[in-house]
């Protein structure tokens, strides 16, 4: 898929305006569907949104970013909290938030041997150094 031409097509159909810059895939995006860069006008999109969801969802993400783009170049409120942005987004049917992607991060689970308090952590805990915050008991890793 030629991303820039797809964004130009969505812009013509939904906004009746031209998209005059470039659109790129950015695989470093993790929690967002896309980004608009006012400095040079280009758009970045998360390729995982395109791969894991249907084209209709991706089109709504494109519409969201194009709302930022067109409002910025019209000199109107282009930020998420602005009234102009919210009205245009509702008009074109864009998504307010990107759908959540299944993250590859694993959650580590620790449990106190005394009081059975459960702790969820992203990083490993040094079991020799740290104790339970409730009863000062020793911790054990369950998964």
From TrEMBL:
<dbReference type="InterPro" id="IPR006640">
    <property type="entry name" value="SprT-like_domain"/>
</dbReference>
<keyword id="KW-0862">Zinc</keyword>
<feature type="binding site">
    <location>
        <position position="68"/>
    </location>
    <ligand>
        <name>Zn(2+)</name>
    </ligand>
</feature>
<dbReference type="Pfam" id="PF10263">
    <property type="entry name" value="SprT-like"/>
</dbReference>
<comment type="similarity">
    <text>Belongs to the SprT family.</text>
</comment>
<keyword id="KW-0963">Cytoplasm</keyword>
<feature type="active site">
    <location>
        <position position="65"/>
    </location>
</feature>
<feature type="binding site">
    <location>
        <position position="64"/>
    </location>
    <ligand>
        <name>Zn(2+)</name>
    </ligand>
</feature>
<dbReference type="InterPro" id="IPR023524">
    <property type="entry name" value="Uncharacterised_SprT-like"/>
</dbReference>
<protein>
    <recommendedName>
        <fullName>Protein SprT-like</fullName>
    </recommendedName>
</protein>
<feature type="domain" description="SprT-like">
    <location>
        <begin position="1"/>
        <end position="142"/>
    </location>
</feature>
<keyword id="KW-0479">Metal-binding</keyword>
């Amino acid at each position: 898929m030629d991303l820039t031409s797809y964004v130009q097509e969505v812009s013509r159909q939904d906004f009746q305006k031209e998209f005059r810059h470039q659109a790129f895939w950015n695989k470093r995006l993790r929690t967002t569907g896309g980004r608009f860069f006012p400095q040079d006008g280009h758009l970045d999109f998360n390729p995982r949104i395109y791969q894991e969801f249907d084209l209709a969802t991706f089109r709504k993400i494109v519409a969201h970013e194009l709302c930022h783009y067109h409002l910025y170049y019209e000199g109107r409120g282009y930020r998420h909290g602005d009234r102009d942005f919210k009205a245009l987004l509702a008009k074109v049917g864009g998504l307010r938030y990107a759908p959540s992607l299944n993250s590859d991060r694993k959650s580590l689970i620790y449990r106190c041997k005394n009081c059975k308090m459960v702790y969820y952590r992203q990083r490993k805990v040094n079991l020799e150094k740290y104790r339970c915050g409730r009863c000062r008991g020793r911790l054990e890793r369950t998964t």
